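thread: overnight batch results

M.L. [08:02]
morning all. the overnight job finished for the chain we discussed friday. pasting input first so we're all looking at the same thing
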Amino acid sequence: MNCSPISPSLPKVPQLRPHARFVRKQSILLQIALGILSIGLIPILTARPSLSAERLTLSYGIAARSISINSLETYAKTGKIDDDLAAYAQYAGKEQLNQLREFLLTPIPLNAVQVSQFLYTPIGERLLENLGEVVQQESRISGFYAIRAALILAAADPQKLTILNVLRKFPSRTISINLVRGFEIAEAFQNAVNQTQQAIALINKQSLDTANISTSDNISVRDLPRPGKYRWQKRSITLNDTSRNRTFPADIYLPDISGSRPVVVISHGLGSDRSSYAYLAEHLASYGFVVAVPEHPGSDAKQLQALLSGKAAEVTSPREFIDRPLDVKYLLDQLTNLSQTDPGYKGRLNLEQVGVVGQSFGGYTALALAGAPIDFKQLEKNCPASPDTINVSLLLQCLAMSLPKSAYNLSDSRVKAAIAINQIDSSILGEASLSQIKVPIMIMSSTADTVAPALPEQIQPFTWLTTPNKYLVLINGATHFSTIGESQTSGVPVPEQVIGPSPALAQRYVKALSLPFFQTYVANQPSYRRYLSANYVNAISQQPLPLSLVQSLSLKSSSLSETQQQSAVLNSQYSIGEAK
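M.L. [08:03]
and the structure it wrote out:
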């Protein structure tokens, strides 16, 4: 879901003849269509499996042009552009053609069972429905079943699952690309990209301007990412909440320090586990925090493995939107009991001063615990997700529509501050919900996140917060997976190009900013507040993932228009280059 389609933005060709303009549009949609094919990635075979596609037909109303699959394969494997492909290649740059070649041949590390299992889930079928509107069979029949068959056949082939192999396995002589529908999706995609770029440029500029006018305060850029002075012990416990028939493990990191210490809970994302943020747990424990890391059994790596091995029928249950926050509340209750009865915990935990940090689905969990209730009215407005949306996270959020409409008590008064990283929240929570949060909040967003896109899921929701102590951190160039550490039980291998550049740097940022945030608002150490500033963020920022921080933001259209004019300058300042 995180593979990036080839950009539809091609250099403008002046004074094109009508025919040339049409061909150029077709070349753009060819790239978009191939990109859309990659989004599904993931049953049983449809009829006529002996057929395989021979041509891609690009249809625009009654007009149509086609290109042979052989031409694409020849170019992908040899770099040779034949006459068939040349009609399109003349409107693409060298870099885009190279991207196309790599895109067609890059293997996707999934087998036929894994692909099949995902595509039979509600989320997988919704993706296929959207893809089928653009990628169609002959006679412009929806490509729903054909795409699913092609993906499974390609995943079972010894030549591995690649986009080129998917095209070859398509069970129809012709793959028809509906350009009218494709242009609609492309336009929606481009609008979303433009708005996101403007918002990112605005945040970067505001952070840089604030840092330039701030005083230094003698901040050491090396202190906070380094381990603290305390040694710690890791203990594992098993929790059994009989009221929900739910058993789950948790790791407890206890610092070797006397006295009652504040507690931080870490909630992992969908398909991860309690080891995914072990690096952060260890770091906070070394500074004297007790860190508790539960594993959410209905949305962890084991759940994803069960799905992909055929032992589960869904990516996750809608009930997880309820159970995840309740897992944390139950964990805190059990730690309270342990602190009163177990000598190993007695007198060591301050469970009235709790912080929560979560990523993706865990980010939602953190915000729910901080005081944001599920907003069913917002879900009804936004679900089902529009076929034009590029926000894949809505497919997950809209699962909550099947929950009984009730005022679930998911918040916890013990939670005094929360950090949400790449969270999903635009529909499951929304403005009316997030505005109810009263505790300090930090949102960390990645500009290259294609799972929970920055603008709708983190930047816009930040503006909905009314709590006076709020922070938006932007990691330029990071992806949805950049801050996730190495997992002991990974559900699906994530390719390096999907993880993005320098995940170690992104994880260093998480440590460097989580620590002062929790020291300030959970441990009540106000001296750390100076680290929660654009000045400090600018000091620790490095390429290839430049960092920005703002404490307020206005996304008025006029501001975005002004920022668009400055984006070229800002992009040069935040471009990939040598580290500071």
